[in-house]
Amino acid sequence: MNIFYVIKQVVKMCLQSFIFPVLYLCFKRKTDENLVLFADAHHDSLPDEMEEMYYEVKKTGKTVRTHFLDYAHASGRQIWKSVAAFMRDYGQASVVFICDYYLPAGACRKKAETKVVQLWHACGALKRFGFDAKDDVPGFYKGNPMKNVTLVTVSAKWCIPIYARAMGLPAERVQALGVSRTDRYFRASYQETCIESFYKEYPEARGKRIVLWAPTFRGNAGNPRLKGIEAVRELSESLGDEWYVIQKLHPHLEGKAGVSNCRIRTEKLLPVCDILITDYSSILFDYMIYQKPLILFAPDKKRYEMERGTYIPYSDIPGQHVSNKEDLLSAVKTAVYDPEAGQNFLKLYMEACDGHATERIIKCVFQ
Fold first, then answer.
1. How far is C-alpha 16 from the chain's CA centre?
2. What pLDDT was estimated at residue 254?
């Protein structure tokens, strides 16, 4: 195991068990029923995963404050100031929205009346995560960064027991209210804007068939690995001028294991592309809403299933399954969408993502 990764986990345990709880107690005050927080440690500004919820909560007239900082690219001083500012508000807030691991929210014994809502950043459940994956939470880690979460919103009832176990929470805290950010997928105006923005930035792609390769990472966020990039580069060369191949890497991989050839967020490329190629990424759940051909390119399937594993039998995912560059080229040229298989998949894993998830979550949180 990477020594720097171990050190990082030990530091997190110390912060969670001692320093952050003391800081919270210093700022603990009477709850302000009107104060709502949005916080994230992976972005310097409002994450896309929170946009739908953020603007809808603003419409309610609540006092909304944000705490965003990408800890991975911030100095120790910046992180400390950000945590202190969050704790100052956390000690009074009635509701806190997060969309990923956010240690400050789980590192104290919060007041019972403060709700912490985990919007999470992924739909469905494909690759094992959290307490189900040693790459996410090592065996020596003490404590639970999700312990204060009072509500986790997921894409379908099927996901409830999985998220409860992976996050170390009682099943009653997980509800199939839908994933807020998917509401935009059902608006024609959103799709039109995505398409228009893409061709404005990449006019050379106009009139061509768009192939999007969006793989996830192997290993952990601190030491991620990428698989298949050589095959995709060869694919791009072999397809010819009538095709346009986008290589869009997971944020954890960017600059560490490769570089994307497109600056636009993956979710905003889904309305644009004609075919998606991915491996174990949860982006395939989002993509299925668009009812277009999917290719599962997993050259390391056996190893991946042994090391991390998946919640769904990989062969059950509707799409063309390939494991080498020769079959990948053939699959792209013959890719088709199976409506029956696609709809059955959506019904099981995405039933609560219908364009009204944000509305349901707000009703549940502020009732």
1. 23
2. 77
